[in-house]
Amino acid sequence: MNGGWGMRIGIIGGGAVGLLAGAYLGRKHDVHIVVRNMEQRTILDREGVLCDQLSSPVAVKAHLKPHLPTDVDVWLISVKQYDLEEVLSLPLPKNGKYLFLQNGMGHLSLLQSLPLDSFAAVVEHGALKVSFNEVEHTGRGRIRAAPFTGLSADMEELAEALHQPDFPILVQDGAVKMLSEKMVINAVINPLTALFKQKNRAVKENPYIRSLGYRLCEEACRTLGLDLPTQWDRVLTIAEQTGGNQSSMWKDLQEGRRTEIDAISGFILEQSSEDLPWHEFVVEAVHAMEFEKGVNIDE
């Protein structure tokens, strides 16, 4: 801990979620953001993080990967699922606490074999990266977190330290169930909004997209062992609450970036012992759009 600055927090990843967390947490804590781009590092050091919902820039310290800050109390890992192995190859200190903010569940098997105190989290905020140091908070939500290889008592302590009224942290009992439920939402909303180039509300309001969404939800619930009516209600609620938001997968395709379709829909396919035709279709369809954008999905 660092006196009046609260905790010393390391955030690996300078995307929308990393910048959003840096902005809100940096008001009360000593925040260090690790990025891969020298220009982003320079701008963050000079100008801090600008969030449209906060009245002034928030000062942070930026570091260029693979160089990491020292004496960090808690790490927030906010990179895409497919970048996680590269991050885990960094010289991560063994005495820290690690909060993983990835979509999907494939990272759990990686974390089980590492000597780290790990905690899983799902981000229910809407965030849009505008520039290297600007982020729009497009939808207020919360971060739900649960212990994985770390201790429940440590999770409670971290949540209490990080929680803020306008950036709440909610502790959950089980990481697997929490991530499974978020996986269903992502498996419905992300590919459909990306393929049809629609904002989230279309999953509820467009009857044809809604019908497709129900089929994806049914396959995902069957595979992950979740109750279909409960999860479908959650999908529709999130689609309504975040109706004006653009999904991360649609944004990735727009900007010619690799999507997380394999970490979401592809993971569900891998877990199933039977055919899932709707998931098979959306995986192939999103890869087709990546191909048209010149994205190398084999990186």
From TrEMBL:
One Pfam family recorded for the sequence: ApbA
Transmembrane residue ranges: 6-26
EC number: 1.1.1.169
Sequence ranges assigned to domain Ketopantoate reductase N-terminal in this UniProt record: 9-148
EC top class named in words: oxidoreductase
Keywords from the UniProt entry: Membrane, NADP, Oxidoreductase, Pantothenate biosynthesis, Transmembrane, Transmembrane helix
Coiled-coil segments on the chain, per record: none
InterPro entries on file: 6-PGluconate_DH-like_C_sf, 6PGD_dom2, ApbA, Ketopantoate_reductase, KPA_reductase, KPR_N, NAD(P)-bd_dom_sf
Biological or metabolic pathway of the protein: Cofactor biosynthesis; (R)-pantothenate biosynthesis; (R)-pantoate from 3-methyl-2-oxobutanoate: step 2/2
Reaction catalyzed: (R)-pantoate + NADP(+) = 2-dehydropantoate + NADPH + H(+)
Keyword NADP: yes
NCBIfam families, sorted: apbA_panE (TIGR00745)
Database matches in PANTHER family: 2-DEHYDROPANTOATE 2-REDUCTASE, 2-DEHYDROPANTOATE 2-REDUCTASE-RELATED
Family: Belongs to the ketopantoate reductase family.
Protein name: 2-dehydropantoate 2-reductase
Native source organism of the sequence: Halobacillus litoralis
